[in-house]
Design the sequence.
């Protein structure tokens, strides 16, 4: 059986698709879709432009294969450049001195009027809601946040080979330490608490029950000698 694909063209060579699907509109929607970022501030996880709080203990599916590491360049509170890549593909970020912008007299000042390095070490981990499927990006440039992702990687690295086709479930938490200048200082904790099957993963093959040994052939009954009578 064979099938024939039929296509028509519109003016200017635009491809017309049955059912009204517009590939340009679809691509534009995908290309301009903004990421919803999760940040950690003062012991709280916040997301979106309105900085809504996510309760501690909330669980997400972590896309460890999509973990991006590297550097982002900031100017006027906007990202103007980046050197980011996937950890799973073996990306190794450049050293800070190879990025340029080392003249501190040209750096912008932070909230405490101190020069702030425009290149910030950054980790980005995509998280997916277990019930809703909504995706977020936990982005961090802080020592505590990068440390939290590092600890998660340690745990994940010890287990993922034993969990083919499974994705880790993490729980948002926090801890704190006493800083000699700033006092009680919180840092995030991303605890691996469970594993779930990835949507695209094939179900593991079900082992067939062991074959039973062939039954022994039925034994023929022994012939019975006729009874002898007195006659």
Sequence:
């Amino acid at each position: 059986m064979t099938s024939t694909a039929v296509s028509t063209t519109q003016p200017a060579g635009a491809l017309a698709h049955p059912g009204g699907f517009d590939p340009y509109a679809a691509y534009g929607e995908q290309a301009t879709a903004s990421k919803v970022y999760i940040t950690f501030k003062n012991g709280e996880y916040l997301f979106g432009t309105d900085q809504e709080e996510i309760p501690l203990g909330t669980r997400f599916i972590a896309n460890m294969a999509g973990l991006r590491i590297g550097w982002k360049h900031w100017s006027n509170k906007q990202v103007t450049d980046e050197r980011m890549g996937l950890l799973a593909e073996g990306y190794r970020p450049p050293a800070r001195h190879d990025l340029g912008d080392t003249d501190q007299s040209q750096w912008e000042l932070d909230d405490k009027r101190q020069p702030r390095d425009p290149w910030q070490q950054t980790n980005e981990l995509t998280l997916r809601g277990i019930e809703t499927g909504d995706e977020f990006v936990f982005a961090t440039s802080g020592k505590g946040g990068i440390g939290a992702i590092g600890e998660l990687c340690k745990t994940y690295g010890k287990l993922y080979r034993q969990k083919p086709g499974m994705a880790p479930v993490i729980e948002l938490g926090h801890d704190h330490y006493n800083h000699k200048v700033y006092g009680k200082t919180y840092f995030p904790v991303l605890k691996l608490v469970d594993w779930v099957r990835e949507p695209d993963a094939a179900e593991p093959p079900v082992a067939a029950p062991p074959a039973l040994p062939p039954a022994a052939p039925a034994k023929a009954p022994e012939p019975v000698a006729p009874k002898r009578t007195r006659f």
Residues 1-19 have pLDDT under 50 and may be disordered.
